[in-house]
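Record type: ASSEMBLY
Status: queued
Input:
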Amino acid sequence: MTTVLYRGPQLPLEWMAAHGLPLAPLLLHPGGGATGHAGMCPPAEALLREAGAFDGALVVLAGACDQIRRAAANVAAGSSRDTLFLFHVPATRGPAATRFYRDECLRLSRFLVRWGGTVPALDTVPAPLTDTRTPRHGPGVPIAVVGGPLLAGHEELYAAIERFGGAVAADGIEGGERTRPRFPTDAPFRDLLDAVIAARFDAIPDVFHRPNDALCDWLSECVTERGIRGLLCVSYTWCDLWRVEQRHLAAAVELPALFLELDGETCLSVRTITRIEAFLESIS
Amino acid sequence: MMALPEKIDLETWDARHAGLRRAGLTEPWYGGPLGRHAADGDERLRALRFDNAPASLRLWNLVLTEEDRLQEHRDQGKRLVGAMKDLGAVPLLAFAAPELVCFYPDGAWWTPCIMECTDGLLNVADRLGIDDTFCPVRAMLGAFETQRHFPIPDLLTCSTGTACDDFTAIARALERLGHPILWWEIPHRRTPGPGEESVTLPTGFTAPRAQLTFVKAGLERLCAAFGELAGHPITTGGLHRSILTANRVRALAEELWRLVACATPCPLPALEMLLVDVLPVHFCSDPAETQATLQELVAEVRRRVAAGAGVLAPDAVGVYWVNPVADLRVMNLVEECGARIVGADFMFAHARAEVPVDIEPLEAVAQIALGDPMAGTAQDRARRIGREIARCRAEGLVVSRIPGASHCASEGGVIRDEIARRFPHLPVTEIEVPPVADACFPTLRTRIEAMVEIARERRNHALRRH
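Status: finished
Output:
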């Protein structure tokens, strides 16, 4: 059965899963020193570099930033098989955007059915996909982390934080609690698609939303409720959206902040790790 | 005082202006010698070479006095709409109400060049955390912060969705500085799927009907906000009139490009053509003056074509140009290298496309917005560039990268590949132009000259074969 590799928590994952094809997150890897495109962010570059390894799988990507949209178009142009699906996630909110997102879900459905999926019954109750990182509630200085998706191996960041006496009390990096779907428990269930839209499109705060107060509200709430003492911001080189937003977030929550810019390094550099250590030391 | 067409420097223009005035030249209220703009701080003008026609003088004066014009509109009680990013759609809505005037704060991206960075806008942007890894449009942020280069608009709009990350991020920074933005969205244009209802857009692309409906819904929100700002609803009649005015301007700009592409010698320089291309985007805040200016230019160019007169050597190599240059001086440079620009996609090609008049006005504007070549894939844009190269018989292609712009990381390669596939021997060069490019000029010159040399050799080879 064809596997569907996906990237982006904004995708209607439970809707996709209901089509019966196996789903797996698409892990992209840092390229080390092998960077070839000035101006291209490491995840987009990894997508281009690793596209050859997707053979046989379907790839569904959330088109939430210019870099990934362009890389996806380049991958699609270089392939003779129509196996890549770029899902446009609206940046704005409102009835028209919701309708558009729903249309994208139906278009995605047709794509999955074409590749062997089955049309799901709309009265199926969604099974929340729990591919997000497990929250760690260890001892240590409570900090929040925010950022986009990490490349494989860069999760080492979490271990480094704990090693130096920190505890991630709010995980705002993609794949953490921020991007977990929020299926309402009190609202009456109408249909599968509506439920997924409410849990993901309506509920997950993200960097590309315009206007974008939800992300700041989410972080501020975490800071207030959890006694967070520092903010660690992670972004990749050339990721304009996160770099700008993180400055705003840090100013909004008025906490000491560390801005880490990662490149395509295969593991965190000594400099990066030392900066994490120094940051935690200074807020302890 | 008739003079043969030629390119002249600022000092010569000022002397010529005095002579023209003595000979009875009448100018609109914003007319005058170009030198006064340089004296006011537009230092880059001293390094440029201009076309010597009075029509070109009017063009320059129209463009360089926009700030005064906006202030005057405000003083007269008009409300200012600052449209960002869409480059050609929102003004069609705003100008439907006579109480509104629309302009693009994005235009500040040329301010560091024009003022040779004495404006300090990029430094302000640096200070606000938007450094030079972002596109030079970050100057806009500095302009809002210093409030010195245009009046702060009464209402700001920005298109998002398929927009480049730089702009989306910079506009977000602007919002955080306390400038509320009315966001609307253009989705990433895609090819319609099998059986999906589709629409052919004025720029030649096709898009799914669902995408157009989404864009239209955003424009409806804008119309509602503009109506509130104007004090009365935006009417279909107002939109229709606005579209007709826009189409007259667009047709004039298109006619100029047609004349310039076909005539030998080249009747109007690249620098003035870049300005011409900007005008249909928002009519320089004055649709009537824009139309009059373009009419005068068309008449001048027609006269030159009829007389077989031009501003460049007859053997200048025709090139197609992709993306705007942050440093205007590069438009002179390309001609100094023996080339002429016969066609261009300066990222606002959709502002030259005729707006459909036989459909509902909002749908027509939505078609223009979604038809932006930048709204789709680089592959789509590259294919369109290929068609344009064939149409204007370009002999070479220059892809001008914008420093820091997210689309420039990969689109150059895509365009090169498409052009190489379609025109295997057409020389292509890729350059990068910062706001003041003086330090890069030797490199830029070498690259452009190499391309021109190859194109000329190809031309000679073809002539020998025949």
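Annotation: The two ends of chain A are 51 Å apart (CA to CA).
Annotation: The mean pLDDT of chain A is 93.
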